[in-house]
Structure formats: C-alpha cells, structure tokens
Design a protein that fits this description.
The chain is α+β, with helices and mostly antiparallel strands. It has helices spanning about 40-65, 100-110, 110-120, and strands at about 5, 15-20, 20-25, 70-80, 85-90.
C-alpha cells in the first residue's frame, strides 16, 4: 500500500511526504504558482515514467538483457473534445533486436501504474472538521 501526506499553508505550493521522502508540487508562475516543484500532472507523468523504467529494468535483469540507459518521455494532452491521452516514448542505450523491442513494448503496457491509469478507479473523499 502506498500513502502520501500533504500540507499546504498558503498559495499553490504543496509539501508532500511519503515514507522518509519530502517533495513539493506547485503551479508554474504563469498559472499563479511559484514554480517551486512539478505541477500535479507532471507528478502523474513522473509516476508513470518511473514505474515504466523500474518495471523494464526488472524484466531485463530477469532475462539477462542489457538495456543501458533508459530514457522515457511522457506527455499529457487534452483535445478540444475533452479526450485525454498520455503518450510515452521509451529509448534504450543499448541496441536491441526487434523481438526484444516488441516484448519490452508489451511490458510497458503491463506496469502497475499503467494498468491503474487505464482501468481508472474509485476515489473516496472524507472532509474532517476541526
């Protein structure tokens, strides 16, 4: 199970904690923030990219494949009709054959965060009064 705690005292700057890690989220200056950290959609894309990279590395390690450096670019877009898409581009530092590339593309579609985003989920909210 994953958990995150957030506190925000003013403005759009958010301070998040997970396990022993602290990080920030904010909006860019042109959206009224102070640009002190990635915006929420950037964090979402980062989660997808990180999960993809970790999963690919785990799979390649089990197969004994050398991937070299993994680079992933993720982009969120919303079309005029409201359709939302994420595009993910993956590159490897090592030369791979066609079959390896095909299999790694399949693995990308099976990462835990990919599967969560594709199937969506129920989100419940409780407001606690002081």
């Amino acid at each position: 199970m994953a958990t995150v705690h957030l506190h925000s005292d003013q403005g759009y700057q958010q301070v998040l904690r997970s396990r022993t890690h602290a990080f920030r989220s904010d909006e860019p200056a042109d959206a009224g923030g102070t640009d002190s950290g990635p915006a929420p959609y950037e964090l979402l894309l980062g989660s997808l990219a990180a999960c993809t990279g970790i999963t690919l590395r785990m799979y390649a390690d089990r197969k004994g494949w050398s991937l070299g450096r993994i680079e992933i670019d993720a982009r969120f877009a919303r079309a005029e009709d409201g359709t939302e898409t994420i595009t993910r581009k993956v590159r490897f530092g090592e030369a791979l054959d066609e079959e390896q590339c095909r299999r790694l593309a399949e693995i990308c579609e099976k990462t835990p965060v990919t599967k969560t985003l594709k199937r969506a989920m129920a989100i419940s909210t409780e407001i606690e009064r002081r």
